[in-house]
Amino acid sequence: MTLRRKKSLSIVLLFGLALFLFAFPLQKLQFGDSNRKSIDATGSDLNFDSPEKTSILQKTSKYLQESKLVYNPQGTNDYERKENRDTLQIISLQHPIKVPLSQVKHYKEKTTVSRDFLSKKIKAGVGEMRKRFPTAIILGVKKAGTRALLEILRMHPNVIGASNEVYFFNGYHTKGLEWYRQQMPVSSPGQMTIEKSPTYFTSVQNTQVVNRMFIFSRSMAERLKLIVVVRDPVKRCVSEYTDMVARSKKNEIPAVDDIEKLILHDNGTVNADSELVKIGLYDKHLKKWLEYFLESEIHFVSGEELAKNPLEEIKSVEKFLELSPFFTDRNFRINKSKGFPCFLPDPAVNVSYCLPSNKGRKHADIKRTTLELLRRFYQPYNKQFYSTVKRNFRWS
């Protein structure tokens, strides 16, 4: 064998050895990963209704604090854990694929804004722009002022609010967590995402809703902050009835009976099972939430004060959400004809945003005797509610 042939053979052997050494670990990694249980990034098979032990949730919270997780855009989660699989699905979705900047719509104010205000928004939006899970949820209640609260909070530079009511925990949880995240607006790391679904607090599926939200909250790196807007239950009931009458005239819903037929028994007593009446039993609804959440995790807002004195009420919410001070009396202007506040995102520019025309409309005429029956019915529930939340709302 010539020297040249020996050199050629040596090169071939060395090349083959190098190729073997390079390919072997890849092959080993591939076999190792094939045996690993994959996590469905859509979260579609997440079972919120499965029994969850407090110890598992506490362990998960500790795990979240101590672990540094990496989510690979290709979908491979580079960690091995023995924790509950449902909870790991939630954890993995804390690190979703980022939204390319080319797909992010630029922020557009509803009104003209000054350079100073826009500067605050830009500073709040520094960082990776992507869709994130909400860290605060407005749970309810219906016809109490949830839309007004969300619109006010959206003026804050560090708050991004979902435009639509999602109803994930009491209707669309089967679509999966990734679907839920996709319903949220794009935000930066320094901004808080908030969603509102007014029926969460009083849902007929109350137990399941609370359980799902509790599992979700305890699996988050940052626990959920819950907000409930409440209103005099008598006025709330009449307000919802007024809305039903208006919708029936537009043929959006079937014709509506007199309110007495909807809320009273044949013997003239209040029907506690009526949907219009049940929502106002705030203390009964709250008891179920307090079986899962701490009192310090739920903040109550007075719908009446939000309309009459919005600054004081929103300052309390601002503190609860641990937001930097932003609101002043210059951000509000009361619409005297309706009694609702109009909002000035930027006081430097005298342009306001008011709630839609259906807000603050005149209530339907209800018999005084019917209103008095409702007041007497709600009175003991109201007193118990005041005691539980340690605030007197002074409802009639």
Automatic annotation (TrEMBL):
The lineage of its organism: Eukaryota, Metazoa, Cnidaria, Anthozoa, Hexacorallia. Pfam families: Sulfotransfer_1 (PF00685). SUPFAM superfamilies: P-loop containing nucleoside triphosphate hydrolases (SSF52540). The active site is at K143 (for sulfotransferase activity). This is Heparan sulfate glucosamine 3-O-sulfotransferase 2-like. InterPro entries: NST/OST, P-loop_NTPase, Sulfotransferase_dom. Disulfide bonds join C342-C354. Keywords: Disulfide bond, Glycoprotein, Transferase. Residues 136-343 form the Sulfotransferase domain. 3'-phosphoadenylyl sulfate binds at K143, A144, G145, T146, R147, R231, S239, K359, G360, R361, K362, H363. The gene is LOC116286417. One of its GO terms (molecular function) is [heparan sulfate]-glucosamine 3-sulfotransferase activity. Transmembrane segments: none annotated.
